[in-house]
Amino acid sequence: MNLDNIVIVLSRPEEPRNIGAACRAMANNGIHKLRIVGKKEEIDLEKVHVLAIHASYIFDNAEYFSSITEACSDCACSCGTTRRRGKKRKGKLLLPEEFAKVANRISGTEKKGGKVAVVFGNERTGLDDNEILECEMGVTIPSSEEFGSLNLSHAVQIMCYTLFRYNEKNKIGYTPIDSKRLKKTVTTIADNLQKIGFFSVTGRKDMEIFWRDILSRSALSEGEAQYIEKIFDKAAGLSKKR
Fold first, then answer.
1. Is residue 68 predicted with pLDDT exceeding 90?
2. Does residue 47 lie in a domain region?
3. Would the pLDDT of 90 be above 80?
4. Taking the CA atoms of the chain, what radius of gyration do you get in angstroms?
5. Residue 127: inside a domain, yes or no?
6. Residue 58 needs a FRET pair 20 to 30 A away by CA distance; which of 86, 149, 189, 194 works?
7. Same-domain pairing of 84 and 33
8. Is residue 201 very low, low, confident or very high in pLDDT (cuts 50, 70, 90)?
9. Based on the domain organization, do 122 and 232 belong to the same domain?
10. Number of domains the chain is built from
């Protein structure tokens, strides 16, 4: 597991002490990259530092974004944490250990590998339906049905510890394409499906989300992405000749 390629994303955090505790949880497990969806000027810095203690450097070096999509644009894979299930909340939610296996493979080695984002929602509401759709996969932390909601910093601790403990040699030897590049491949697929009239049967947006989620788990290389694009280009071309 290349922990330098693990990125923790906090979306719309409300309680600054939770941010500080999350920073400490990250530092405990050798993870140092923090991104926040929100504005720094709206966060009480003093309260963050009270609980972050010697992990304050993680918060001080945090990057800020306006959306989850923007925060994860350079990542090969993004995974949203959620307790709730539903039609719009990913078909299959991974367990932390299952996600660690995916992250281990994608994060690669010190010189090779792609960034993997773990996304956490607001303390009160978690990730809403639109936010979970911005992520390419979902993970759920098992907990009691009587009281299943975890504190934000506790959830960060569990996910970071699971990633820290997972140490296999099954790592990729290349740098996977990031989300921004993957979008080009997905658009190429959708454009060609549209050319052959496929979307008279199903919606384009749902199909794009389907291909994005499937391909992100594959950690495509640049060559593989180009090959997939050529396949769909050729298929659409052959359809026109009939």
1. yes
2. yes
3. no
4. 19
5. yes
6. 149
7. yes
8. low
9. no
10. 2
